[in-house]
Design a protein that fits this description.
14 helices, about 325 residues, two-stranded antiparallel sheet, ABC transporter involved in vitamin B12 uptake, BtuC, 2 strands, mainly alpha
Length: about 325
């Protein structure tokens, strides 16, 4: 029993102290994953704040956007023109969802809207497979002028390797989240979004168009999905398996709160760093592979303590 407790409670920390450079490497990789998880979660937050809809389709939007980019390039479209066309595709998707899904279902129960996003998920899967096929594709990283080399940092008697694509992914994610945060915090559209999030009926009474706001936030979520698809695709292949990675946003939302942009960032970092440390230092004790489920375990444990998340609003209903 004592040996087991030592392996669980003491030995991992001894390993961190003995190889601090390796520990820094693990922290960096967890940080990059966490930033990208936060970027995915941001798409969920934007849509939920504006419409109260939990968009189950956000994961497949990431895949569809990345496949559209690579597919257009393979069809002979120059890389940056393909990127611009993908922005227009996300705009068309946002307008289509608002017109064909949200508008007919306005004032319906939340579960109906949630089921509609599940239907949208499978529609995009079928459409994506029909147009692009089911084979994994290689992201056009160099064509988009994204860096592909690496840096080595000598520290604490060892080396920490920073992949340039990871640095670019972190920088782009931070810039995009900051820009969206400032846009929705300091612009007229942002104030309208906050009004809609607080009270749909009150927003309507002062002349705010729900349809316009919904189209805008779905378009913003589409841009987030496009950026996420490019970054994840550059780190691996572009395939439908990416939607499984996108579902890591669910525990991020549990930790940060469904309505909080800062919560999405903090929750993403907790999940990204936590699962990477757990996999490296505790994974071998239970057979490895815990990176696939540890995030959900962390979220479940957190739900027992603070169900509304770190930055979520506590809602008290009197009955």
């Amino acid at each position: 029993m004592g040996e087991i407790l030592y392996l669980i409670l003491i030995d991992p920390f001894v390993q961190m102290a003995e190889l601090p450079d390796f520990f820094l490497q693990v922290l960096w990789e967890g940080f990059v994953s966490g930033i990208l998880y936060a970027l995915i979660a941001l798409g969920f937050v934007l849509i939920f704040k504006a419409s109260g809809v939990f968009n189950f389709a956000q994961g497949i939007m990431v895949v569809f956007a990345a496949l559209s980019l690579v597919g257009l390039y393979e069809a002979g479209v120059p890389a940056f023109l393909a990127l611009a066309l993908c922005v227009l595709i996300m705009l068309g998707l946002a307008l289509g969802v608002e017109r064909l899904v949200l508008r007919p279902l306005v004032n319906q129960p939340d579960i109906i809207l949630f089921m509609a996003t599940i239907g949208l998920t499978y529609f995009l899967i079928g459409l994506g497979e029909f147009i692009f096929g089911g084979e994994p594709k290689v992201m056009i990283t160099e064509e988009l002028l994204l860096p592909t080399g690496s840096y080595a940092w000598e520290v604490m008697g060892g080396l920490v390797i920073f992949q340039q694509i990871d640095i670019a992914a972190a920088v782009i994610a931070v810039v995009l989240m900051t820009a969206l945060g400032l846009f929705f915090q300091n612009t007229r559209i942002g104030r309208a979004l906050r009004a809609v999030a607080d009270d749909h009926q009150a927003a309507l009474s002062v002349g705010i168009s729900l349809n316009q706001i919904w189209a805008i936030v779905w378009f913003a979520a589409g841009i987030v999905a496009l950026a996420t698809g490019i970054m994840w695709g550059a780190r691996s292949d572009v395939s439908f398996a990416l939607q499984i990675v996108a579902l890591k946003a669910l525990p991020v939302l549990v930790l940060g709160g469904l309505t909080s942009v800062p919560g999405a960032i903090v929750g993403g970092l907790i999940i990204g760093v936590g699962e990477k440390i757990g996999e490296i230092y505790w994974g071998s004790m239970i057979g490895g592979g815990i990176e696939g489920w540890l995030a959900y375990f962390i979220a479940l444990a957190f739900l027992l303590v603070r169900p509304q998340g770190l930055f979520g609003e506590r809602i008290i209903e009197r009955v």
